[in-house]
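In this notebook, the sequence line spells out the residues, with the fold written below as integer tokens. This is how one looks.
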Amino acid sequence: MDAKKSVQNKRDWILATLLFVLLGGLFIAFRLFAFADEASLAHVYYGNSDEPIVTIDFINYRVISNYDQNVPSEYDDIYPVINEGQQTITLLGDYEINGERQIVVIRYDYGRKSVEIIQEQSPNNICSREGESTGWPLICLPNRIRVEFETNDEDFTV
């Protein structure tokens, strides 16, 4: 009876190990190849809007402000604030500290076709710790700001 349990226990361990290795391999493959295409655009969204507030065009080296962020009158700046010299975009997030909404600063790099959230205030500062992204979406909660990438799949004929 103990020999039967021992064999079954061994099979369970082998099956669990194989399943772990398979899932680990799938996870690594997904991380390496899911967003491997080079991005041509990065769209910055605010709130639940389906229209980007800012579009970063990595091909033509320009930042397009699609509309102004709706902010309360007690704030002096008009958001988004686009600083082409420092390659940053500043938005007003929804997270409040002592009744004041916090800013979110996004840095972009045309050469690397990347975006990074470099400054934000939230309970765990998760989005500023995500680092630089060249295709993986960035989501900044509770500030309700997200960055999504778009690749250009057009065929070029010569």
Q: What stands out?
A: Residues 1-34 form one domain. The first strand starts at residue 41 and ends at 46.
